[in-house]
Input
Amino acid sequence: MGGLPIENTSTTISLSKLPKDQKSAASTMPDSKPKKKICCACPETKKLRDECIVEHGESACEKWIEAHRKCLRAEGFKV
Output
């Protein structure tokens, strides 16, 4: 699989890049509902995970499965 490295699949935003007023709101805000449906979140990692599973089987693709879960968690999903 010549896909993207796991480290580049995260879509989280660093709080240090937010203006001061948004930093405090983001840090005090409880876990909010995801803004997307789970089927539409993280298309890059989903594609890599699915291709790997089709070609090599689920047991050989743990790193892509975990990368996709990590991305989904960053989007606000509890997986």
Remarks:
- The CA atoms of residues 32 and 54 lie 33 Å apart.
- Residues 7-16, 21-30 have pLDDT under 50 and may be disordered.
- The two ends are 24 Å apart (CA to CA).
